[in-house]
Design a protein that fits this description.
Elements (H helix, E strand, L loop, with lengths): L2 E8 L5 H19 L3 E6 L2 E12 L2 H15 L12 E6 L1
Antiparallel strand pairs: 1-3, 1-4, 2-3
Helix pairs in contact: 1-2
């Protein structure tokens, strides 16, 4: 079974440029380490609410470990709105 990951969070308005760079870093790391391409969406009428999407993940343990390492290396957590965290939801196809 494969899983689709939906990860959403609120970006600090003053740090959107840096967060864009961090997301690209994540996508490059994930593609290189897992072969999975990510994409990011921004909510209509709420452009600071972002969602990363990763589809067809078969090895959840490796994916989650790699993602955690990439998030830490990117410094992304410091770019989120105060009090905001990354929320992960997984769904199967």
């Amino acid at each position: 079974m494969s899983w689709n990951y939906y990860i959403y969070y609120r970006v600090d308005a003053a740090k959107t440029g840096a967060c864009t760079v961090a997301v690209e870093f994540l996508f490059d790391a994930m593609r290189r380490e897992t072969g999975i391409d990510g994409r990011v969406l921004k909510k209509r009428n709420e452009p600071l609410l972002w969602m990363e999407i990763y589809e067809n993940v078969e090895d959840e343990a490796k994916f989650e470990w790699t993602l955690a390492e990439a998030v830490a290396a990117s410094g992304m957590v410091k770019l989120l709105q105060e009090g905001s965290t990354r929320h992960t939801e997984c769904f199967s196809a």
